Amino acid sequence: MRREILAFNDSLSHFKTLNTAVLAISTDSQFSHYAWATQPRKEGGLGPDLKLPLIADRNMNISRDYGVLLEEEGIALRGLFLVDPKGILRQITVNDLPVGRSVDETIRLIKAFQFTDEHGEVCPANWTEGSKTMKPDPKGSLEYFESVSANGHVNGNGTDKKRPRV
């Protein structure tokens, strides 16, 4: 979890450019957070330059409400929740304890939601900023599918390119 907190912390300026606030919530106390945040990174802490807000969920209500609490253990799974400016939950990612979350994937999802909100188009699988999107109607979908090959790569002229036989 330490590495994740540092990764999100180190990307806060990027999140800010996306008009996105990032919070870290754990079932640890504010005293644990303080001790961890004041310990230097080279000694296993988060370092005094930590800017990511750490929220103590000691009563475990937030973790319980978001469905990530392991009641018997009193700990929360690794959850990530994207909530838009209207307060609508747009994405839920819950990982088992040994698997961390990806800052890059989180940023990709935020950009995709912002793009669809602004343009009303669909971001297909593996979409990245600047990639082809499709209009959410039969004609727009057909145009999109005609412009990608069977493996999902966009062709320059909108048709599948023939591969030479080997």
From TrEMBL:
Source species of the chain: Sphagnurus paluster
GO molecular function: thioredoxin peroxidase activity
Gene Ontology CC: cytosol
Lineage: Eukaryota, Fungi, Dikarya, Basidiomycota, Agaricomycotina
Record's protein name: Peroxiredoxin-4
Spans annotated as Disordered: 127-166
Transmembrane residue ranges: none
Any Gene Ontology biological process: cellular response to stress
Family matches, as InterPro entries: AhpC/TSA, Peroxiredoxin, Peroxiredoxin_AhpC-typ, Peroxiredoxin_C, Thioredoxin-like_sf, Thioredoxin_domain
Originating gene: PRDX4
UniProt biased composition (Polar residues): 148-158
Signal peptide residues on this chain, from the entry's feature table: none
Family listed: Belongs to the peroxiredoxin family. AhpC/Prx1 subfamily.
Keywords of the record: Oxidoreductase
Residue ranges of every copy of the Thioredoxin domain listed in the record: 1-115
